[in-house]
Amino acid sequence: MGCSGRFELITHPLPKNRPLPPHSTLPHGLPPTCLDLKTEVEKRFLRDPAWLPVHDVDDAFHKISGRDREVESLLHCSLSPLHSGLSVVRDPTTGLLLDFTEVLLEDTALSAKNSLSLQRQPGPPSESLRGSNTNYPFLPGSGFRYFSHNCSELEEDIDFEKDLLTVPPGLKAGVDFSDKGRVSLLLSMFFLTTCTPQDSGSSASNTVLLSEQKKKPQQEDKGDHKKWAVPVDITSPCDDFYKRIPDPAFKYPFELDVFQKQAILRLEAHDSVFVAAHTSAGKTVVAEYAIALSQKHMTRTIYTSPIKALSNQKFRDFKTTFGDVGLLTGDVQLSPESSCLIMTTEILRSMLYNGSEVIRDLEWVIFDEVHYINDAERGVVWEEVLIMLPEHVSIILLSATVPNAVEFSEWIGRIKKRPIYVISTVKRPVPLEHYLYTGNSTKTQKELFLLLESTGNFLTKGYYAAVEAKKERTSKHAQSFGTKNVSQHNTTASQDRAVWQTLLNYLSQRQQTPVVAFTFSRTRCDENARSLTSLDLTSSIEKSEIHSFLQKSLTRLRGGDRQLPQILSMRDLLKRGIGVHHSGILPILKEIIEMLFSRGLVKVLFATETFAMGVNMPARTVVFDSIRKHDGTGFRNLLPGEYIQMAGRAGRRGLDATGTVIILCKAGVHDMGELHAMMLGKPTVLQSQFRLTYTMILNLLRVEALRVTDMMRRSFSENHRDTQAHEKRISELRNTLSSLRPLDTEGQLSDILSYYHTITELRITTETLQRAVLESVNGLKALSVGRVVIVNNGQHHNALGVILQVSFHPIYTSHPPPNLTCPHIKSHHERPCSHTVRKLKSQDISAITTRTLKVIPERIIDNYNKRQQPRFRLDPPGQAISTATQELLRLAEANPNGITTLDPVNDLHLKGVDVVEGVMRHRVLQDCLKDFHCIHSPTFTEQFARVQERMCVQEELDKLLFLVSDQSLTLLHEYHQRIKVLEALQYVDSTGAVQLKGRVACQISSHELLLTELLFENTLSPLAPEESAALLSCLVFTQNTQIDPHITSTLQEGINQVLNVAQRIGELQRDCGIAQTAEDFVAQFKFGLTEVVYCWARGMPFAEIAQLTDVQEGTIIRCIQRLDEVLKEVRQAARIVGDSVLGSKMERASLAIRRDIVFTASLYTH
Known about the structure:
ATP-binding; hydrolase activity; RNA-binding; SKI2 subunit of superkiller complex
């Protein structure tokens, strides 16, 4: 190397006596290079006597470990699994213990980290309840393709009773050991089906074998067409109930209904049931019996509900009844060791994915309010849970009446391979009467008109009476006969007040309280309640009871929180017997109102639709403020299912003979058709809301044995796929194919397969062109009377016809017999001339020719119809028919190669790209036909028929193979798009193995991509705990606010980073093909509560933070509670990553927000 930095590379060997040139000619030698790390470590820690004195060993070890020596600890090691165990031998009659035998244990190395088997070792106690995101789930009982971790793909499980071969491969006969002591020869299946009776040996043995073979397919047929949903007849009484169950697990103080008895009989048989019953029919009885049964069997039951409020209520009810009941929600965990656990469906999903040990002991899972599966956002959770439940778990589904309960049960039965018994009630226990109310003053307060009787009769008389009553008070300008689209905004606040005041006074006089008034706006709920200042519906004793209950319930709040404006105003309303229930009300207040309502102390409750969802609080009367609601996109009328769900709250069983439902006509009477459709329409069917989520994909990918496509295939959205029937048909087609004679493709016939494919393509192209012609205006114009057309259908092949009459549906034509030639087969069939008149569909016309004939349609049709009568049948055809037939015959003979047809492009002027390309392709294919040699073969017709037969079977087989393959899954394309996103973000690698980021995302239940990216980009690191909580509030808050929050600069930087990351993920998703735009993805994160959460985490009282925003108090509390769950997830994720600083920061943030009124314990649970 020279001074200038250039160096010389010596490529040729130097003479032995010549020394190598110096390493460097630099003045100070080579510049220092990076020190070798290994050498440095050795020098520093192993060769430095000062650091590790050879003679002072004790001091050296203290430096390394900093702890006392425990030599004895080296003698202990973890226990290896036992390879054998003891089995008890008992007397089969008395049960007396006779002996113990040693048995070998299988699968001793299985654990939650490597196996889906229930035989695996239990995990540590800390993971027994919720499981761990590194655990495998237990094998779902949905027929997932599962290979054990130590089995190769060539290995398979063998049933040594049934699966052993009796005929060795390659031999025609074997030995049958099935008959005791007698050995008989078995002939192979192939030999049996192909040999002649003379060759087949013993006729007796043949008869037995053939009969056995005949039996098998019948049994298979029976199994294939098995209906998994079994409707149970509840019309006849169940008289032998107490004989069949002499010692029930739970005794009821009342006589059970037939549907309840039938359900209990099925539970005793350990069957799964779907109970679709009317509101207040008593579905809970079925759930209670299952809980009692599991306590008797010493197993466990999980009761899931769609909403937290319902979970809390059921906890109180079941705790009173059974005692041994626990509760698991996002923020509460009570008695998790109990035999009955109540939880939300999301928590059960998490437990299933994380391999919770609770699943081992599980006997029943009860899904309450199953119609919630229709929820667009959360419905997918129900499907995931139903698919992921192991085989040993039985399912109880409780729902309001739904039209497709059998279809839904059929789906569950099919994926679980077990029958589901469907039990539906025929009618409500308390019938309903539906009224229209038009009163608005003391004078008109009795204007209540019966519209729908309890028997289901719709009374138009009542409707017209309501219209008349309303008309009398409206100005002439507004008179109308049932104004359509009456909006609730057409009335002023004072008019509303007058209507409510009048109605509630009237109902109070008639003792028709308690009343639930459904109002589809939180603001209007509050306004209606506040406007009734002069209404007092409680006695002094009731006022005292309400006051003491309020005082007792509010003692758990701090002093300042008891003086919140909402609590003070509600206290005044409740004392007068008026309550308000919606999501904006403080949770503790909602519970107070629910409890007072159930005790009959709240006489009028203004509520939104959520009150009807499962909260079991029936009333005497239900009132609808309006029949229109906003569903997030626009205003619409209530659906029949929504109306029935809410109206069903009317009528208390055992207290009321009938329930009363009243619809207010404030601005005018609603349209009769709309009312009829809403009251008597079919309720909403259960529909699949299955969609792919990143959490689902990652949870399934991390377990090698489970596949996302298996989950997709078993979803309710793919219920139309009858895979079993398809697979049976595939087997039949394969047998058919193998039995067909081989094709002759030698010599002239070498191109017969190409010829078949060309002909098939030509036929498809012709049909597509003809469809385009007949759908066009010019094509329909060409189909005029007298036009000559070519007809192809079941009766006629390439027949000429003439159009006699054109209508929107049938087309009359007259045509002679099929005596024309196919353009590609040079043969001519002549028959004596005859004719017929037929109604044709447009698809029967295969071509429109350029020719027209002069015909007299009326005469032809009349003469033909006349000759169809028996006495005129032998008459000769009329002159008009004879002329037309002769003309058609002359055309046929003059054009042996086919008549010229109208060209779609040149004659009919169709200029679409598809049509032009189709015409060009058609010409090319027509020209190709002349070049084939096979058509000159003497055996062409016979061989072509064979090809056609074989190809028809092959095409059907290919179609069915596609239908049963993953490629036909509706969501497969989206799955590949989402995998691309995960690969681009490095959550999974190219082989689909889940990486560190993917494992973190598994821990997060919603917005997993954004949160994981924030975690890995250290966005939360520079923020204080309260700032982190404020920033993460954007993941749980979904409303738009009018007030801009005032926030710190660090927090603003954090918000900008969140928006940048969201924008990047949104753009990546769009680039990978996912339909959601980047703008929509970013827009779902709302920062309206950042200031509120920040101030709350810093210790500001609730009364003050409520002033910072226009969001209602109940919504604030719900968001902060959900935020606490997010903080826990981030803390767990930080531990996986190894970021202990962030983990402890999240813990501090969680502690900062868990205080006072926001985390006051529920009245139901304490």
